Amino acid sequence: LSGVLANFEACKSQATFDVRMCKSHMCGDCTLAWCMESCQKLQEEHSGCRCEDWPEARVSYSGEGMKGAGKYGDVGDYSK
Questions:
Q1: Which of 13, 23, 41, 61 reaches 20 to 30 Å from 67, CA-CA?
Q2: Which pLDDT value is given to residue 41?
Q3: How many CB atoms lie within 10 A of CB 52?
């Protein structure tokens, strides 16, 4: 774990990004389509920012480990 944190570099708007992305329910636990779309827009607004606790391989909100991926849209009972 310390190797992942050692490679973390804060972006220019890291403090704002942390509050709105990394520590928010909307981008952390919410699996509604609206939340996911809003967080993707937020990532675009803060290009190059990432959460310190994300795995090293995850470079954006939509990257590996995204909560709710594959949970709405074309899955479930209504996809058939």
A1: 13
A2: 96
A3: 12
